[in-house]
C-alpha cells in the first residue's frame, strides 16, 4: 500500500536510556510519520513501559497509546487524536454489521489500556450506554445478558459462555489464548475469550478467533499511519 516500514531492533541488553534515545531520534526524523513500540518490552534491564510509550511524539503515536492521545479520546476529541488500533478495528467491524451503536447497551469485558479502556470511550462517544466489566465484577453473566453489543478483551480462554449472550447481539472477541489440542502439530490451538461454538448459536454477528479482530487491528494501524502522513503534509503546506 506504499508505506515504507523500518524495523529498529534493539538488543535485549538495551537500557531505558538507549530505548528513549532511539525513540527521540525517530521523533525528530521528519520523513517518519508513525512509530510503534513493540510491547511487552523484553529487555533484561528494568524499563518503565509508561515512560517509553509516552516518549513517542503524540503526532507519530499511531498506536494511540500515549497519555495525550488517550486523554483526548477519553474526552471525546475523536478527530484530534490517534485511536488505538484494536478498538478502532472493533468499531469498524460493528459498523459493517449495519447495527447502529447509538442508543444501544454495550458491555466491554476488560479494562486494559490497549483494548478495554479505549473501547469503552469509543462506544460512549458514539452514543452507546456502556458498562465495563472486569475481574471484580460479581454478576458477569447477568451483565453480558444485557448487551446489544459485547466486546471481550479479558485474556481468559472461552470465559464467556454462549448461554450468557443476548439473542441477536453483536459479539466482538479480542482474545488470543492458546489451549492444549493434541490434534494439532504444535499441540495447541488458538481460541478467543468467547466460547465460539455456543455463542454462535445466539449472536446475530460474531467474530472468529483467529481471523477476526486481528487483521482489522493491522488495517487500522495502516489507516492511522496514512492519516498521520496526510496531517504532516497539510501542516508542511500551510507553513509555506
From TrEMBL:
EC number: 3.5.4.9
Domain Tetrahydrofolate dehydrogenase/cyclohydrolase NAD(P)-binding span(s) in chain numbering: 84-231
Catalytic reaction list: (6R)-5,10-methenyltetrahydrofolate + H2O = (6R)-10-formyltetrahydrofolate + H(+)
Transmembrane segments: none
Domain Tetrahydrofolate dehydrogenase/cyclohydrolase catalytic: 1-63
SUPFAM superfamilies: Aminoacid dehydrogenase-like, N-terminal domain (SSF53223), NAD(P)-binding Rossmann-fold domains (SSF51735)
Origin superkingdom: Eukaryota
Keywords: Hydrolase, Multifunctional enzyme, One-carbon metabolism, Oxidoreductase
InterPro entries recorded: Aminoacid_DH-like_N_sf, NAD(P)-bd_dom_sf, THF_DH/CycHdrlase, THF_DH/CycHdrlase_cat_dom, THF_DH/CycHdrlase_CS, THF_DH/CycHdrlase_NAD-bd_dom
HAMAP family, A to Z: THF_DHG_CYH
Protein name (record): methenyltetrahydrofolate cyclohydrolase
Amino acid at each position: 500500500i506504499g508505506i515504507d516500514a523500518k524495523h529498529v531492533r534493539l538488543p535485549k541488553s538495551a537500557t531505558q536510556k538507549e530505548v528513549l534515545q532511539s525513540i527521540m531520534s525517530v521523533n525528530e526524523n521528519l520523513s517518519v510519520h508513525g512509530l510503534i513500540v513493540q510491547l511487552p518490552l523484553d529487555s533484561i534491564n528494568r524499563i518503565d513501559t509508561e515512560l517509553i510509550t509516552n516518549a513517542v511524539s503524540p503526532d507519530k503515536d499511531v498506536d494511540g497509546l500515549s497519555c495525550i492521545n488517550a486523554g483526548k479520546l477519553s474526552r471525546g476529541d475523536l478527530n484530534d487524536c490517534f485511536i488505538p488500533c484494536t478498538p478502532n478495528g472493533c468499531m469498524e467491524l460493528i459498523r459493517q454489521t449495519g447495527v447502529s451503536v447509538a442508543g444501544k447497551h454495550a458491555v466491554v469485558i476488560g479494562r486494559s489500556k490497549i483494548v478495554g479502556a479505549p473501547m469503552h470511550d469509543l462506544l460512549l462517544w458514539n452514543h452507546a450506554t456502556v458498562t465495563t466489566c472486569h475481574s471484580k465484577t460479581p454478576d458477569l453473566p447477568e451483565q453480558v445478558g444485557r448487551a446489544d453489543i459485547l466486546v471481550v478483551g479479558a485474556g481468559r480462554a472461552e470465559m464467556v459462555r454462549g448461554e450468557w449472550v443476548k439473542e441477536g447481539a453483536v459479539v466482538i472477541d479480542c482474545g488470543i489464548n492458546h489451549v492444549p489440542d493434541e490434534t494439532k502439530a504444535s499441540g495447541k490451538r488458538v481460541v478467543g475469550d468467547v466460547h465460539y461454538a455456543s455463542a454462535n448459536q445466539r449472536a446475530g454477528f460474531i467474530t472468529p478467533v483467529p481471523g477476526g479482530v486481528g487483521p482489522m487491528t493491522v488495517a487500522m494501524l495502516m489507516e492511522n499511519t496514512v492519516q498521520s502522513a496526510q496531517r504532516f503534509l497539510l501542516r508542511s503546506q500551510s507553513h509555506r
